[in-house]
Every structure is written in structure tokens, then in C-alpha cells.
UniProtKB/TrEMBL annotation:
Superkingdom of the source species: Bacteria
Name this protein carries in UniProt: DUF1328 domain-containing protein
Keyword Mitochondrion part of the UniProt annotation: no
Regions annotated as coiled coil: none
UniProt KW Transmembrane keyword: yes
Keyword annotations from UniProtKB, A to Z: Cell membrane, Membrane, Transmembrane, Transmembrane helix
TM spans (from-to): 7-27, 33-49
Lineage, highest ranks first: Bacteria, Pseudomonadati, Bacteroidota, Flavobacteriia, Flavobacteriales
């Protein structure tokens, strides 16, 4: 999921350089959403981590 976030950030940067403001804003917002989903899942996995037996 983090890979998709990086992909959309790069897409937003490239679109911003070429002047496509709407596409850049859309890609940046998708990247933000994916990053926060990744962050929440990461924290949940840390909290419910596996215990050693």
C-alpha cells in the first residue's frame, strides 16, 4: 500500500510540473488517503502484534 502512495505522490508532482492542477490535486489527495490507511493498519498491527510462545 505504501508503494501506491509513493506512486500517486510522484504522479502528483509530475502533473504539477506540467501544469495539470486538477490531476495533481486528485493524485495528492489519493496519496494522502492511502498513506493514512497504511498508517492506521500499521499502528493496529503494532498493537495486536504477535506474542512469542
Amino acid at each position: 500500500m505504501l508503494r501506491w502512495t509513493v506512486t500517486f505522490i510522484i504522479l502528483a508532482i509530475v502533473a504539477g510540473i506540467f501544469g495539470f492542477g486538477g490531476i495533481a490535486a486528485g493524485a495528492a489527495s489519493i496519496a494522502k488517503v492511502l498513506f493514512f490507511i497504511f498508517l492506521v493498519l500499521f499502528v493496529i498491527s503494532l498493537i495486536t502484534g504477535r506474542t512469542r510462545v
